[in-house]
Amino acid sequence: MKRLLILGATGSLGRHVLQQAVAAGHQVSVLVRNPAKLPTELRSRITVYPVDLGTVAIGALADMIRGHEALINCAGLVTEGRFFVDLVDRIVSSVESLAPAERPTCWFLGGAAVLDIGPTGRRGVELPKVRDTYWPHLKNFERLSASSLDWRLLCPGPMVDQPALGTANLRIASDQLPMPIPAFSGRLPSLLMLLLFASKVPQMIIPYADAAAVMLSHLTPQDAMSRHRVGLALPVGMRGKKDTWAARPGNTA
């Protein structure tokens, strides 16, 4: 069990991370702007820091991070643009300010667009239209890569409130989209590459509960996911469509 700090624990993903972490017996602390949004039944079982991550000083944030073995950041939205980039930079800088022995294992949230498109050497975030919205994920990945932290960057597609499928049923890949991409795709013009990338997104619409479970299953320092982007996809033959599944695999236990 870990001394775990969750940032953004009242958001769509954060609440799943919080619930699963408490159920697993972790010693949980949370940084939230509005503690009243925390589930009533969990408040007595966690340590709560009422903090605005958008304004907290790096030194003050570092003091709150100190003493935790793992940190999961669920705060911030890619649609917030520069604010999201600055928020991640503040968190990374706070961890960097700690002595190496005091730094926790860290999870951050990115998106499928920052993954490599198979062996093509290209990423969704570099494509027309995609980069207009998802450029903050690339900036955050570059910031993490430039640090010496023990980080992992979760890169799902859109996430939905659907029952968990179980992480054993997901396709999980390091640094690339978690489905086969023909090597010749690297020669496609940008518009066709965009269509290829978009065609893969429905396979990467993941339940929040499964995304949370992947993070919580990999908190060991310097494990196989350390300093990697982690892509997630549904089982073969299954596609998501916003709040519904277009197809279900034969076994999702």
Essential attributes:
single chain, 253 residues, alpha/beta, two-stranded parallel ribbon, 28% helix
Arrangement of strands in the largest sheet: 3-2-1-4-5-6-10-8
- Number of helical regions: 6
Helix content: 25-40%
Q: How does the helix and strand content classify structurally?
A: alpha/beta
Which runs of at least 5 residues are low in confidence (pLDDT < 50)?
247-253
Report the radius of gyration as a whole number of Å: 18 Å
Strand content of the residues, in percent? 15-25%
Which descriptor suits the 3D outline?
globular
Largest sheet: 8 strands, mixed
Report the count of strand segments: 12
Q: How confident overall, as mean pLDDT?
A: 93
> Span between N and C termini?
25 Å
Q: What string gives the helices and strands in order?
A: EHEEHEHEHEEEHEHEEE
Give structural notes.
With about 250 residues, the protein is α/β, with parallel strands linked by helices. Helices cover about 30% and strands about 20% of the residues. The protein is built from six helices and twelve strands. The chain has helices at about 15-25, 60-65, 80-95, 130-145, 190-200, 210-215, and strands at about 5, 25-30, 45-50, 70-75, 105-110, 150-155, 160, 170-175, 205, 230-235, 240, 245. The strands form three sheets. An eight-stranded mixed β-sheet has the order 3-2-1-4-5-6-10-8, with helices on both faces. Strands 7-9 form a two-stranded parallel ribbon. It has a two-stranded antiparallel sheet with strand order 11-12. The chain is globular, with a radius of gyration of 18 Å. It starts with a strand and ends in an 8-residue tail after the last strand. About 40% of the residues are buried. The model is unreliable at about 245-253 (pLDDT under 50).
